[in-house]
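From: lab user (bench 3)
To: helpdesk
Subject: output format question, protein + S-adenosylmethionine

Hello, I'm new to running complex predictions and I'm not sure whether the block I got back is the full result or only part of it. Here's what I submitted:
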Amino acid sequence: MNFDKKFDRYEENAHIQKVVAKELINLVPKKKYNTIFEIGAGTGVLTKNIVKNIEYKNLIVNDKYFESEEYIKDLPSVEFIGGNIEKIEIKEMDLIISSSVFQWIEDKDKLFEKISSATDTLVFSIYIKGNLGEISDHFGISLKYLDMKELKTLLTPYFKNIMEYEKEFKLAFDTPMEGLKHLKNTGVTGIGYTNTQMIRSYLSKQLTYRVGYFVCEK
Ligand SMILES: C[S@@+](CC[C@H](N)C(=O)[O-])C[C@H]1O[C@@H](n2cnc3c(N)ncnc32)[C@H](O)[C@@H]1O
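Helpdesk reply: Thanks, we reran it on our side. This is the complete output you should expect:
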């Protein structure tokens, strides 16, 4: 993953992530929140949706990359905490929320356990098995995406009520190269290291995104 210094290009190319964040915000249980914690804010795509749609007193926003702070620092009552969420402590919160981030988490079980000790309500979206199948089929490169059942199994020890569903989005491009550029700009790297022959023989003009949405309550 390399979002470093790519945040501006992310903002321009994150079409699916923007649609996903908008949908996620509508799943948040409607009430007044004292403290909300967002994991992996990036350029603030979800953060801006929180500010617009949810009543809160304090919004604490995290990202692994400290550049993220630049994008969210002017939003009302927002505090930034930089660092890898797998390594940092999470304080008690009324709501923990995250969009398009958890597919990057190495030890999801450990993170879910840490989150459940800090909150009663977790709302998140995640890319799931089959995501960007065009890329894994051709280049053999993929994150270790989990399916909905595997994710639910991981969450069940920590949350009693889990509502979940999945959705598929297809993005069309004029050329296969446009699709690859789009991925690079949204932070999905790795393809650059493969040989040019592989890139030339990539023929797909579409990318399939598979997204899981979860609302978890204790
Ligand atoms: C695809 S972007 C999503 C950004 C934003 N939430 C959105 O909806 O557009 C993924 C973000 O997660 C952050 N991220 C990835 N792994 C992380 C980790 N372990 N701890 C904190 N942030 C992480 C990245 O730096 C990046 O900003």
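A quick orientation on your result: The longest helix spans residues 15-25. Let us know if anything else is unclear.
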